[in-house]
Amino acid sequence: IPITVQKNENALAIVFGIENYQYVSPVTFAKRDATFMKEYFEKTLGIPASNIYFKTDSRVTKAEFEKISSKRGWLDKRADKNTDIYIYYAGHGAPDNQTAYLIPYDGDPNYASQTGYALDVLYANLENLKARSVTVFLDACFSGANRESEILLAGARPIFMEVNPAMAENVTLFSAASGTEISSAWPEKQHGLFTYWMLKGLQGKADANSDKNLTVQELGDYIQENVSITAGKLDREQTPGVQTRDFEKVLIKY
Hints:
Largest sheet: 6 strands, mixed
Number of helices: 6
Distance between the termini: 12 Å
Radius of gyration: 17 Å
Shape: globular
Helix content: 25-40%
Strand order of the largest sheet: 2-1-3-7-8-12
Number of strands: 13
Mean pLDDT: 89
């Protein structure tokens, strides 16, 4: 994990990793993914440890999603117009009536709209914070299956991830998979496939022009190429995406 000269004292980060669920199958390596992500946020992106909200497994309830993003919540009390916010989530997602939901530890994908947390709500709350920037890393899929292709939802209709540009002026979304694809695990590396290559990219491997500045475009291209190739070797299809208004935004200065 590279320790950079970058220091962002005003940045805030949320890290949620749910591996073991109360009612559904596990998300293999999600807790390990989240633990590594916390270290990268602190050491590589220069976010103070006290500004990182880190929870895993049974501690990630629906109430935690409400707590971090709602009005007068954890982020709202700390963010201002000079704040860069980073959010990482590894866990189950589920579709319900063409809406994408993140599934908390005590949630049931079969009742996603009742027990999950809608991505639309999360984005709307993040927009209301009026922060300088919001960067979201989602190692989840919305196909109704887990990292081992085991079906969580019979007859699930996958969700194509979209960020509404009208409300997401300052939001950048890195997503692990699209459409009917699953967000795979990589047993050999003990990580989610998306998270593994995203962390490799943050190490500096994605700095394509070697100018010591890692942009959204560079990281997105690096993740997409490497995840797609590796997924193919695992006899799967996985196409990560990046959605943003600012592809030239610099994420890390090395």
